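Before drawing any conclusions, I needed to go through one protein's amino acid sequence and its backbone structure tokens, quoted below without any editing.
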Amino acid sequence: MSFANLGLLPELLRAVADKGYDAPTPIQAQAIPAVLAGRDVLAGAQTGTGKTAGFVLPILQRLAQAPADAARRAPRALVLTPTRELAAQVADSARDYGKYLRLRTAVVFGGVGINPQIDALRLGTDILVATPGRLLDLAGQQAVDLRAIEVFVLDEADRMLDMGFIHDIRRVLRLLPEQRQNLMFSATYSDDIRDLAARFVHEPVAIEVAPRNATADRVEQHAYRVAKDHKRHLLAHLIQAQGWPQVLVFTRTKHGANRLTQQLERAGIQAAAIHGNKSQAARTRALADFKAGRIVALVATEVAARGLDIKELPVVVNYELPNVPEDYVHRIGRTARAGMEGCAVSLVSPDEALLLRDIERLLRRAISVLPVPQFEIPAEAPPAAGRGHDGHRHHGGGQAGPGGHGGQGGQRHPGAQQRRSGGRQRRGAGGRTSHGR
């Protein structure tokens, strides 16, 4: 099947060809006809399979075939996204695919000045891409009129409808006309989220082109069991020994992302952090530097997990496992996009064993645990008992077993077994280490 078989306008087919695409992905092949037919859609697909084009292309066609009064300046399509980066990316896609049409796209999000966004809205737009908070700010200032919305899209709907966003979404929905087309796209859908989403769509076409919460088939997934205090040294070793040209590293907290970035830079690895406390300018610059190959490691919190399209990204590392198993799917979906292959590596400390089990239960498959390679813990590490004969710590690959205890595999010095916090880690109830979270 080609895009021409989907009934798209010649202008859209030309734009698609400009981007080098000749055949639709499974989600596009099913979603585009449904959206063109005016149906509400609830769609789930693996990350990296072209969900954005699945709604952007038919929306552009619908708007182009029914032009608005030139005097009207209000947006006719609204796309809500959970992050600034994803909003900017969706807007770029709408502009790229719509470049041969007389349609305008605007994007609004927080972290930057609101006045330029107000000025852009005054000039008029057909498609508005927004994050919920900034959209509500603009609506409160009567800087945007949503009463003409014909198509409403929740991108990454599972996160958007999660507890942190549901109240804002309800406020946005009250600003929209009752008669509209509703589209919800996401890589993951829990049963609870599906039930909640059903309140906003009417007799939707349900599209699921992969098993629910599936991960990309081309992602090679494995894990290393390693003590929490040794993770940064193992990560630096893997980046350097494996020769990874680019790696996207996920941490749970903003402070942890900043700290790991500094530690990697001290190890001679060019790195930058991206998270919610960074200014939009800093986030944009870090992402641009990473895409351009000026930095090797981009250390991120969940803010970067949703929808970011980094071409040919070879490796994603879960430096810390996510608390929500579905977030694992989104994290590793940054690699193996658009038919490419990729690798996802998880560094699992003893207190994360239950999180790994929850992820495997969601995936309905085991993640292979590899033997930990021998790596050096540099002398500049915080002093503690137990150094090798040369004054440096050495890790001997003995953390491959459950719980992260040191073993004998490949160890060079008798005194080089893992010693931290006064010796081997004490284990508490349930098999977790006593220095846990």
